[in-house]
Amino acid sequence: MTAQQMWQQYTALHPTGASYEAWAFCGGGEAADRLARLVLAGTKTATASALIAYETEGEEPPKPGCYSVVLFDSGEAACVIRTDHVSIVPFDEVPARHAWLEGEGDRSLAYWRKVHRQAFAPDYEAAGRPFDEKGLCVLEEFTVVFRESPAV
Question: Does residue 147 contact residue 40 with C-beta atoms inside 8 Å?
Fold first, then answer.
């Protein structure tokens, strides 16, 4: 199912008047599939990005109430999520609770910092800057509001 088809199914049941964005975690690849599966399993209820990526692209960070269709690497829609809470904090002040909500690896803050340092470094490089431990992170908490019913 495409993102548009999933959004149409969701809004047919829950008219919102809102728009949505469609995206894959980590820009795609195996990581996108792994993280989308964590969302579908209910393990992953949060995500993070480097604020500098939004600034470089001239985009606004997400806000509470925003909708997204999470995609697998293939472009197939996994689910619709609604952003419930957004905070912007320095990388070195991301709380352990957020690492747990992201649901990745052993769910520890140490693991979170290791993988997100690697994930955010290209965003800093694109802006012509080195990675910054004090650089701001956009922390999102979300709820899955729609997913395709499994075939019976």
Answer: yes
